[in-house]
Design goal:
Order of helices and strands: EHEEHEHEHEEEHEHEHEHEHEHHHH
Mean pLDDT: 94
CATH architecture of the largest domain: 3-Layer(aba) Sandwich
Low-confidence stretches: 350-361
Structural class: alpha/beta
Number of strands: 13
Length: 361
């Protein structure tokens, strides 16, 4: 019996799927699409028109916003993405939204069941109030840490990200430098990573993007002086084929930002190469990095210095084995398939229609 599903997936149109550079959501979505298609599901992606995916593509806009230099407010384009998917909802058994809270009204009123995976922080910018209001919307968190401020929301699953990591290069050598991958922003812990490099006398290779004005300012304040000093080698934003060997050759990948990472793809990518992760004890990194096995969880730079020394004793082959097992696309899609099927089986359009009294003014 054919038990395949017709699945619509809608994403923000700022980047193509898959992305060519630094990104999180779009890379995970590309992996979801590939694995769903491999299993025989009929998948349609609502995204920027320059996406290249192994499924039907419905362009929300012709080209991804950031590829054409757009740096303005994106909220109207997120609403456009939701409206485009909503318009074609009858074609699907279930729709998977990656539009953050911008897809909540869509999810509430669309006759086809919509599940929303949330990728960002949920404790800022009015999002707690939105989660309180939209208790009827089925939500997937990407870590237990992410959902802890609103445990009573309509969580249907926590699903850690998966990626196709088998092709990641592996090195059994301990490495003679540290690696930093991400964005040049204070919350990513760039300043602490530079200080760690100074104190351990290991150079820091930085693979990162510097686009926004605040990123450029932080680069000028923190990174450029370290480059001039010879502590940092700045490599810019690199595609995976160039970035991954740098990670594989490092003593450790450092993630010392104090902000609560909702997930942190860099950590699993590093572990897939066998390179341990030295991370601040914050957010989802406490779930993805097992202290003393995959790397070390630290509270300050002093502990990070000790972790750099101890990381030489870790089994890099075991780090890689665990990463490939724990963060595989198959594991991720097993969980998403279960969510999709539960929603389809329990969907009753009349139960999702919420009637509210008009507001008197």
């Amino acid at each position: 019996m054919d038990d395949s599903l017709r699945i619509g997936i809608v994403v923000p149109p700022m980047l193509a799927v898959p992305p060519t550079g630094y990104s999180g959501t779009e890379r995970v979505v590309a992996c979801i699409i590939d694995e769903l298609a491999r299993r025989g599901h009929q998948v349609t992606l609502f995204a920027a028109g320059d996406s290249e995916v192994a499924c039907e593509l419905v362009p929300v806009i012709p080209r991804s916003l950031w590829s054409i230099g757009y740096r303005g407010d994106v909220s109207a384009f997120l609403q456009l993405a939701a409206a485009t998917a909503w318009r074609e909802h009858e074609r699907f058994d279930v729709i998977h939204s990656h539009l953050e809270h911008h897809g909540f009204l869509f999810a509430r009123h669309c006759p086809t069941p919509v599940v929303a995976t949330l990728h960002g922080r949920l404790d800022v910018g009015g999002i707690p109030q939105l989660l309180e209001e939209f208790r009827d919307v089925p939500l997937v968190s990407i870590s237990e840490s992410q959902r802890r401020w609103r445990p009573d929301a309509n969580w249907v699953a926590t699903i850690h990200h998966g990626l196709s990591l088998e092709s990641a290069p592996f090195s059994g050598d301990e490495g003679a430098y540290l690696a930093f991958v991400g964005r040049i922003t204070p919350e990513k812990g760039v300043a602490d990573a530079v200080e760690l490099a100074r104190r351990t006398q290991l150079p820091l290779r930085v693979v990162a993007k510097v686009y926004d004005e605040h990123e450029q300012a932080h680069f000028a304040e923190v990174v450029q002086p370290a480059i001039d000093e010879g502590v940092v080698e700045f490599l810019g934003e690199l595609p995976p084929l160039q970035r991954d060997p740098i990670i594989a050759g490092a003593r450790a990948t450092v993630m010392l930002g104090a902000w609560p990472e909702p997930f942190g793809l860099v950590a699993i990518e590093s572990m897939a190469t066998g390179t341990p992760v030295i991370a601040r004890r914050a957010g989802a990194l406490t779930e993805t990095v097992e202290h003393g096995i995959d790397g070390y969880l630290v509270d300050d730079v002093d502990e990070a210095v000790l972790a750099v020394d101890l990381s030489r004793n870790l089994d890099r082959a075991e780090i890689r084995r665990r990463a490939l097992e724990r963060f595989s696309p198959a594991r991720m899609i097993d969980q998403y398939e279960a969510v999709y099927r539960r929603l389809v089986a329990s969907h009753r359009p009349s139960e999702l229609s919420i009637v509210r009294a008009p507001v008197e003014v």
